[in-house]
## 1
Amino acid sequence: MLSYQHGYHAGGFADVHKHAALCLLLAHLGRKPAPFCMIDSHAGRGLYDLTGEQAGRTGEWQAGIARLIESAPTDESLQPYLDVVAGFNKAGGDLVTYPGSPSIAARMMGAADRLLLIEAHPAEHAALRGVFRRDRRVHIHKRDSFEALPGLIPPAERRGLALIDPSYEIKAEYRSVPVMVGSALRRWPTGIFAIWYPLLPDDRHGPLVAGLDALARPVLIAELTGPAGSPAPGPANSPANGPAIRQGLRGTGLAVINPPWRFDESLAAAGAAIARCLFGANGNHTVRVTGDRP
Ligand SMILES: C[S@@+](CC[C@H](N)C(=O)[O-])C[C@H]1O[C@@H](n2cnc3c(N)ncnc32)[C@H](O)[C@@H]1O
């Protein structure tokens, strides 16, 4: 039974980092004329109301996307992300809507590209269906992603990206996600895989990163950290708020397999700008490559 709902965290600093990186990957895929496919294995509801009850209870978006926009960064690497978010809001008006990864992808894709979404939570799935009911490029699966993903890979297009963004409600996912990615990679060796993970004080992401490293190919690891205890705690004891995940979140990580050429440089620039805008002197962003074997 899934209880996590991303509405509490939409637009928070982890989303800012993950979605800025996602925009860079999508911009890369969109540069060539051949169609591509994006698979979002943990899609969420697709679009978030920042004036709604969930966003209001934590206020994470205010310390995330709102602070980034207020800082008005001019870094080129952040512009695709800032442009997409702006496109979901009225020019010159308040920030009221935040696009989740499916909406970001749909906005950056072309007419011939495809978006495959997996979401198991009934309410999140129903909302997601509502967002994309008129978009024929989008295919939505209400299934467990661990079961559904192998059947969707490799996509016919061969070019593309899989975003793996679990809620880690189940601690075993730190071990099962690399296994899932390993089997997906065997079926789709040229696919780009982006895997999100939280940085918690007990470093429980260790087995996840080690498991990805064991896949024996270079894995780009990007991590953003802020002051201890960020973001603002909010009502962390609400079950839907994912207390086991968010309490004491000290940072956010993204592992990318088969990153595009020079993605490391653009993500390093974007991450440094995010760290500066959101956390000032307390922010840090690192990009490294693990598993780089001859
Ligand atoms: C972190 S949220 C996704 C956020 C989204 N990718 C974004 O960036 O906007 C994780 C989502 O995965 C869903 N989920 C968790 N475990 C799942 C599973 N085994 N299969 C399918 N969906 C799952 C949750 O219901 C939740 O909506």
## 2
Amino acid sequence: MQEMKWIWQYVKPYRYRMGIALLLVLIATGLNMVNPYVSGIVVDDVIRGQKKELLLSLIIITIVATLIKSIARYVFKMLFESVSQKVIFKMRDDVYVRLQKLDFHFFDNTKTGDIMTRMTGDIQAVRHFVAGVIFMVFENLVTLIFAVTMMMWINITLTLVLLAVAPITGFFGWRLASGVKPMFAAIRDQFAKLNSVVQENISGNRVVKAFAKEAYEIEKFQKENEGFRERNLEAAKLWGKYLPILETMSGFLFVIMLLVGGVMVYYSTMTIGELVIFGGVIWALSNPMRMAGWLINDVQRSIASASKIMNLQQQQPQIKNSKQAIKKRTVSERIVFKNVSFKYENEAVLEDITLCVNPGETVAIIGPTGSGKTTLVNLLCRFYDCTKGSIEIDGVDIRQMDIQKLRQIISVAMQDIFLFSDTIEGNIAYGMPAASMEQIKKVATIADAHHFISNLPEGYDTIVGERGVGLSGGQKQRIALARALMSNPSVLILDDTTSSVDMQTEHTIFKTLKQYYKDKTTFIIAHRISSVKDADKILVLKEGKFIEQGKHHELIAQKGYYYNVFVNQFGDFDSVYAKGVV
Ligand SMILES: Nc1ncnc2c1ncn2[C@@H]1O[C@H](COP(=O)(O)OP(=O)(O)OP(=O)(O)O)[C@@H](O)[C@H]1O
Ligand SMILES: [Mg+2]
């Protein structure tokens, strides 16, 4: 089985430890047979045979056996535990490394909750398998073999009679396990639902409050909580139905042993001592039968979890480094989009885009929401690969370039801002952890963030909350801009980076940027004319195609989309012109 092979690959380095642990399980299980056996000898030889001198040695044997058994149990438990911890440590590490390799496509199509479940619950299930299930299966199997062998050795007839009855216990155990299995699945599904309600509620708590939907949210939670309780109760009811049957069956096995064994003792085909031994090991017959169903269930559950983790670990990124990747350091020449088309799934987002950007040029892209502006720059960063055409930097197809190097020369301030729950300093220096305070302050000044950061009580050491909670939208944008500037990239992409700052601040930022970064190729994506009007080249993107391009005054003269946006934002051109706004 694939999953087992996969788990084995992790356990293999510790195979000797596992071997020793299993050997100790064997010893401990074998020693379990000592007490019943000694009891039989006490009855037959010490009490009935009057061999009192045997008693002391029997007591010593029992004490030694118990001591060895306890030590063996302790050691094998520790061994299984340590191996399982080492196994899941490596497994977790591998999954995390794999997650870092996966690209946008994977994260677009995978729920965060699913990944979190893989990293926590499923990994725990595999640990339980390595630490507990393996030894329990082995222990039960060995116990059964030891017990049956010993019983056969003492009295074959009675053993056969008991073996004929024992499978009935096994049958009920099996029925319970198979009945409870879908219930376990239902409990897990319900738990996942409950979890996602809580997770969504916490992440969206501001929306909940804004719409005063607390009561609705409580009701939603209570519904899932009730469902969870009911699923658990259903399982408990089934468990409650079969448990007395199982207990009765075990008792029944004991009764049969007494009955048949008693008759045999009466007719002297068996000694009382032998019957006592049978009485002592009868549990070893019923217990494994009873456990079998549960253990199969446990194994299945672990395999299901292993398969999910394995699946995640085998995911391949669609964006890969080419074999002879070219490690380019800086951009000194042109960026060219050659007949680029792109679709996410089936719907075309960009169609036949051709664009040539000279070094140091500032290119602005404007266009209706959803027209494909973010997608266009995502292709340049190789977050996705274009479906048709190619993008070249310095005449080299970016698919031939080393991805890490490509992303070092291009820096993006993304539209969707994410700040880590770290200090402001840590957030700005994210791409260059070795940056000096002076460098950090410099980029913060260019992004017009230094002033407000200095006014915070803890300045650059202020810890921003999860996703930047505690900062205004414009403040977050300026920190994200500073973070993008930090690595001193050759190409800078600003995706809607100044949309939340006032026009005066925006003006200051662009002025300073021009001063410090005049030789850098810059892409500015914006909806406001004020953000794009000074660019060397303005492109209007609509439904995945460039419909207009040129400089500000040229586009105004065209009286097309750009002109209309301008009129909507500033009023009639002639009157604005007269006021000297443009
Ligand atoms: N990850 C994705 N998977 C599938 N479709 C997507 C994905 N991201 C964007 N789209 C779709 O692609 C189209 C272009 O999206 P894009 O984000 O590039 O627009 P945009 O021009 O940046 O818009 P805005 O001005 O609102 O930022 C939209 O129709 C959007 O629904
Ligand atoms: Mg966008």
